[in-house]
Amino acid sequence: MKRRILIIIGIMILAIPLFWIGNVLTPPPDDESGNGNPALLFFPILACMFVYLVYLTVTICNQFSMRPAVYIIGMTVTFIHVVVSFLYQRSSFLKYKTLLAETYKKEVGHIDWGYIDTITSFMSLHVNSQYFNVNSYFMFLSFAIFLAQLIVYYYKKQVKNI
Length: 162
Known about the structure:
Distance between the termini: 23 Å
Helix content: over 70%
Strand content: under 5%
């Protein structure tokens, strides 16, 4: 079990530079972007880390006998954190989109919303700071914990009739 906990801590530590580098790869609002988005290479790595983090957390939680109320409280708290973080992320994204539009207006004289929508699409280099930041890092961890608790709770409810 100590080995699994150390691996979880290692995943948490290794994810920090991936989120940081992804954030650093965002060009300034008044800068042109190149071809491609190298930060997208981090998504598969983070996805694998996420799945393994959930798996390890499930195996550790299965070793403890906790009352159902503990799982329900844990799931509620982590779910609330994920929802609030998502709402904050959305608000931050809309503010950033407005900042890009204002910067574009200063340079060109008008706002081309088609262009702004293009550079703020999912795969755009201009929104890396919105996907790779401290908030999204904690969302990553909270959602992994939430899923692990949900899996353990339903497994124990179905198999062990807690």
